[in-house]
């Protein structure tokens, strides 16, 4: 608008200037015309025209004054115009400088418009939210009511949990009582059968005793007659000696008769003594009560028949076991074979190895074929559900028969005892005893005492000291005879255990003294075929075995093992499952004798990971996984640190599977 007024003002000024110029031009032209017409006009006309011209001049001068005033105004207007132009330039400059501000204003206007749109959308949404809020308030009111109900239910739940715990304790007591009742019933059945057998034997013995008594009476009567006859002969002999020397020949014959009668008397007295011993339930004093114990079982006879290799390296022996596995179509990871082999080597600190898992996973075949491949005698002892004392493992003394009835295990142990059976013992040989399905009966009933004996064995180089050895020796219950068996380091012990409703769980005492190898379900079913042909068997010498066990750690390895054991101790303490010096020494011993193997760069780390699997995880059964989540994560990190990611993943999987029950159950690792 300012630009339009300026242009109008300039146009007006130009118009005024043009008008003045036209007026002046017109006056000049008019004067020229008059000058040309002067000769023709008269004086009056000239005067009139002069007056007219003067008037016109006066008018022009007035007009000129007006125009001059106007021109002065034009100059002022021009000055104002110039100032206005300058202001215009400044305004243009400022306008150009204000472009960014205009853009910001435009952007602000755009944002304002968007905000208005968003406000409308929010207001629209707010209406819906208000309705939803009302709905939520209704739900909250219902939730408050539910919370009250939940609190009531929680209180009821607590009461029910207390009742459930009491019922579980009562159920366990009932189960124990039921198991005890079954055991008692089985014992009663056995005793009933034994009673029937003994009753029959007793009746037979009574008849035999009656017959023997009659014979004894008859012999006594005969003896009385012999004594009377002997007295008569002696009297006759005395009389004859007094009568005369003529009867010396007759006396000699009588003396010979006396000697014969005395010999018969001795025989009869011995027969009477034996009959009296049998009639009172004793044994024949001429019969050895240990006769059956001294008879070698078949496993020892076969072990003696094996030829002994001159010298064999540990790696070659393990290869022989692998060949044995291949021949019998058995598939075990090399890691499992090395773990079992190392567990056997530490039988001085860890008394046995337990192979646990579901049925049909090769738990029994592993120790059997391992022993055959190594050249070690193998004795399988099937555990019976009724076993409840060490006698079931070693045998018992039969007081009726007057002899000791040993098991094959007792006979084998006695045949390998070079200390208590030095003359007939098998020298420089080894044997493995497998307690098959060892948890069909309560292990602490029949094996606890034997396990304590194994643990009490002195060091290998101190076995010869009787005072140190006495607590480890097993004394057999044989009347009037002291018979001991020392389970030496030439014996290896393993056990298998299935996990189903018919089995018992292992006690802490057994778990603390065993390497527990858990066999998981296989990923695929093996379709291997057993190879035909005989496999040569060579016996492994005890000296070679002890040479394999005689290893030591380097200083850096020893430090790494010590740090690892301390970390395990601290972690298990956090779990609420601490362990003592025995287990710490056992872990160190396992890491020390772990064999070198191709493809295993860190044998110490591998051995420590094995000990997590076999010694620590079985002790965590029943631990609350939610409460100890941080500790289980630390255990996973420790397994990964030792290079066993498969073990770490298996621990994580077992923890995840325990979320339903809340209690940890180790399910093993599939390698």
TrEMBL record:
The keyword Transmembrane applies. Residues 276-295 are annotated as: Disordered. Residues 47-101 form a coiled coil. SUPFAM superfamilies: P-loop containing nucleoside triphosphate hydrolases. It comes from the Bacteria. The keyword rRNA processing does not apply. The chain crosses the membrane at residues 6-29. Keywords: Coiled coil, Membrane, Transmembrane, Transmembrane helix. InterPro entries: P-loop_NTPase. This is Chromosome segregation ATPase-like protein. It comes from Marivivens niveibacter. The lineage of its organism: Bacteria, Pseudomonadati, Pseudomonadota, Alphaproteobacteria, Rhodobacterales.
């Amino acid at each position: 608008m300012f630009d339009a007024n300026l242009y109008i003002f300039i146009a007006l000024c130009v118009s005024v200037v043009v008008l003045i110029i036209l007026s002046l031009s017109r006056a000049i032209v008019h004067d020229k015309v008059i000058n040309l017409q002067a000769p023709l006009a008269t004086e009056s006309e000239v005067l009139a025209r002069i007056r007219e011209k003067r008037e016109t001049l006066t008018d022009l001068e007035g007009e000129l004054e007006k125009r001059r005033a106007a021109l002065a105004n034009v100059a002022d207007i021009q000055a104002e115009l110039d100032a206005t132009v300058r202001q215009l330039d400044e305004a243009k400059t400022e306008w150009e400088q204000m472009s960014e501000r205009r853009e910001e204003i435009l952007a602000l206007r755009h944002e304002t418009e968007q905000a208005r749109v968003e406000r409308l959308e929010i207001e629209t949404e707010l209406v819906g939210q208000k309705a939803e809020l009302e709905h939520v308030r209704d739900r909250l009111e219902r939730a408050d009511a539910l919370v009250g109900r939940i609190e009531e239910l929680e209180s009821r739940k607590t009461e029910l949990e207390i009742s459930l715990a009491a019922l579980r304790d009562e159920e366990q007591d009932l189960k124990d009582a039921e198991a005890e009742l079954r055991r008692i019933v089985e014992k009663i059945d056995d005793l009933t059968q034994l009673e029937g057998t003994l009753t029959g034997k007793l009746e037979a013995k009574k008849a035999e005793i009656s017959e023997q008594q009659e014979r004894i009476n008859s012999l006594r009567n005969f003896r009385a007659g012999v004594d009377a006859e002997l007295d008569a002969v002696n009297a006759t002999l005395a009389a004859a000696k007094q009568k005369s020397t003529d009867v010396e020949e007759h006396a000699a014959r009588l003396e010979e008769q006396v000697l014969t009668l005395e010999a018969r008397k001795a025989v009869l007295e011995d027969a009477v003594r034996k009959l009296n011993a049998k009639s009172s339930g004793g044994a024949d004093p001429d019969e050895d009560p240990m006769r059956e114990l001294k008879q070698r079982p078949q496993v020892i006879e076969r072990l003696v028949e094996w030829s002994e290799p001159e010298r064999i390296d540990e790696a070659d022996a393990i290869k022989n076991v692998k060949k044995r596995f291949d021949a019998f179509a058995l598939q075990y990871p090399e890691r499992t074979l090395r773990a079992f082999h190392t567990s056997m080597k530490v039988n001085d600190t860890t008394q046995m190895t337990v192979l646990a898992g579901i049925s049909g996973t090769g738990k029994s075949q592993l120790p059997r074929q391992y022993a055959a491949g190594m050249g070690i005698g193998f004795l399988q002892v099937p555990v019976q559900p009724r076993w409840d004392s060490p006698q079931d493992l070693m045998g018992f003394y039969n007081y009726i028969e007057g002899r000791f009835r040993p098991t094959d295990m007792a006979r084998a142990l006695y045949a390998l005892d070079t200390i208590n059976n030095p003359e007939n013992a098998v020298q420089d040989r080894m044997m493995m005893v497998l307690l098959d399905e060892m948890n069909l009966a309560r292990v602490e009933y029949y094996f606890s005492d034997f396990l304590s004996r194994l643990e009490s064995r002195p060091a290998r180089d101190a076995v010869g000291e009787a005072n140190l050895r006495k607590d480890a020796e097993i004394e057999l219950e044989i009347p009037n005879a002291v018979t001991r068996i020392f389970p030496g380091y030439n014996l290896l012990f393993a056990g298998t255990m299935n996990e189903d409703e018919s089995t018992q769980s292992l006690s802490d005492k057994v778990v603390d003294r065993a390497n527990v190898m858990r066999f998981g379900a296989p990923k695929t079913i093996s379709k291997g075929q057993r190879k035909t042909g005989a496999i040569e068997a060579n016996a492994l010498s005890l000296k070679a075995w002890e040479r394999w066990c005689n290893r030591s750690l380097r200083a850096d390895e020893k430090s790494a093992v010590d740090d690892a054991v301390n970390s395990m101790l601290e972690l298990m303490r956090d779990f609420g499952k601490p362990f003592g010096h025995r287990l710490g020494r056992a872990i160190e011993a396992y890491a020390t004798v772990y064999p070198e193997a191709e493809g295993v760069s860190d044998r110490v780390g591998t051995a420590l990971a094995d000990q997590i699997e076999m010694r620590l995880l079985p002790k965590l059964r029943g631990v609350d996984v939610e409460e100890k989540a941080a500790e289980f994560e630390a255990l996973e990190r420790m397994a990964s640190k030792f290079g066993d990611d498969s073990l770490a993943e298996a621990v994580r999987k077992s923890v995840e599977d325990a979320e339903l029950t809340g209690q940890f159950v180790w399910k093993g690792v599939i390698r």
